[in-house]
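User: Sequence recovery, please. Input:
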């Protein structure tokens, strides 16, 4: 819950409802999550627990809370094997899976590997962790599963493996959760330097604007979060709009900002700059003045913004000198 609150407050993940299932009242955890030694599939008791989660619990949550379509399931050791039954079913019941120190049933890695190529329509995220604190057989099973999963050739299957060299079984839970959040909700976060360098810096202005708009369409589709494009993300692509193609896309950029932030002077500034660059000083003045009027009284940027108006007036009257 602490990680959920922290990630949400820093806009690194959407707000989440955390649901815990108490399996310790009568030590029923093993019975709930056991598997058949013949085929690695659920036993009669674990099948009942599976149906409880898939139907009763999820139906209750859907009826009681306002949920997004995106759901994550987390397990540790034995339950980290159990969560995979929701992955290998015909229609996976969850979008993201966090398997911490999984104690895999013998056939589970192969069942997962067979399922992955058939995944379509929606992305499925899978985070797997283990470490040196596990027994050799346990480590070997997890590492072998990693080798199998990382060969899966399906762009809809998003996978990350983390091996903790120096940790212990308890600490690894606290380490895995934020790592899994960062991986699963990477798209949701504001544009980082890594994302900019990898995906954006070489784009044309038109493609940079399209990338930004598509990013938020995907956020809405995947997480059900109808976010307005963050101002920080707008400024992240500013250099591309200014530096490439002689500012031809300044007007498009400004119009996008005005749609999102009507009370901000920034959109008018970029449109004004577009017309000023093109020598259309009357239109440039209109937008610079419009932006100036949006500044609150006493704004420290007011004098600097008004310089745009003075500069264009001089250009219009033929008295401006560089």
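Assistant: Recovered sequence (322 residues):
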């Amino acid at each position: 819950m602490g990680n959920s609150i922290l990630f949400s407050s820093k806009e690194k993940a959407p707000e989440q409802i955390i649901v815990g299932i108490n399996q310790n009242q009568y030590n029923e955890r093993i019975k709930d999550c056991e598997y058949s030694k013949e085929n690695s599939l659920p036993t009669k008791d674990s099948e009942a627990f599976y149906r409880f989660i898939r139907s009763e619990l999820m139906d209750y949550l859907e009826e009681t809370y306002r949920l997004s379509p995106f759901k994550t399931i987390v397990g540790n050791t034995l339950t980290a094997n159990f969560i995979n039954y929701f992955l290998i079913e015909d229609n996976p019941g969850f979008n993201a899976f966090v398997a911490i120190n999984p104690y895999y049933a013998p056939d589970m890695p192969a069942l997962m590997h067979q399922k992955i190529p058939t995944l379509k329509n929606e992305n499925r995220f899978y985070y797997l962790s283990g470490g040196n604190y596990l027994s050799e057989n346990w480590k070997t099973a997890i590492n072998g599963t990693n080798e199998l999963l990382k060969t899966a050739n399906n762009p809809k299957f998003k996978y990350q493996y983390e091996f903790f060299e120096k940790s212990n079984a308890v600490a690894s839970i606290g380490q895995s959760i934020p790592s899994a959040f960062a991986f699963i909700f990477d798209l949701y976060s504001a544009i980082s330097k890594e994302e900019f360098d990898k995906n954006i810096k070489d784009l044309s202005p038109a493609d940079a604007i399209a990338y930004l708009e598509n990013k938020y369409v995907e956020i809405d589709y995947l997480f059900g979060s109808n976010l307005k494009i963050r101002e920080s993300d707008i400024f992240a692509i500013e250099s591309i709009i200014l530096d490439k193609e002689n500012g031809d896309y300044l007007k498009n950029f400004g119009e996008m900002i005005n749609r999102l932030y009507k009370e901000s002077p920034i959109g008018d500034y970029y449109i004004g700059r577009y017309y000023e660059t093109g020598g259309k000083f009357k239109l440039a003045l209109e937008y610079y003045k419009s932006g100036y009027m949006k500044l609150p009284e006493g704004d420290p940027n007011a004098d600097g913004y008004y310089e745009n108006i003075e500069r264009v007036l001089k250009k219009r009257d033929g008295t401006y000198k560089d």
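Residues 55 and 210 are 40 Å apart (CA to CA).
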